[in-house]
Amino acid sequence: MSTNGTLHAKTTKPPARGDLPSSVFAFPAKRKEPMTNASHVRNALARFDQVKGVSDSDRDRAFANIKKAAKHFGVMVSESHWRELGKKPHARSSGLD
Question: Based on the structure, what is the number of domains in the chain?
Fold first, then answer.
């Protein structure tokens, strides 16, 4: 997302993390879990419970940010609340299961 709330378009060379606006992070106040492409959105979902030092209201906002980014990048999110994260895998790892 840009400073006006829109997500960055796909580019050939991503900006440095320090150059990203806070609005592209799942947790903007902590600048944790940048979401500039589909892979980063999936990573933010997978690591959501690993972010320390945030309140439940921060997690509410972060999950809303992730869902918005997921919609933009075409990532399916089956969970309806962040408390459901971590209870099941988000994607199959190898297809061998």
Answer: 1
Domain range for residue 76? 20-83
CA dihedral over 55, 22, 33, 31, signed as positive or negative: negative
Question: Does residue 10 form part of some domain?
Answer: no
Look at residue 85 in the predicted model and tell me its pLDDT: 86
Q: Helices 38-47 and 56-73 sit at what angle, rounded to 10 degrees?
A: 150
Model-wide pTM > 0.85: no
Burial 9-28 (b: 16+ CB within 10 A, else e): eeeeeeeeeeebeebbbbbb
Cα 46 off chain centre by: 9
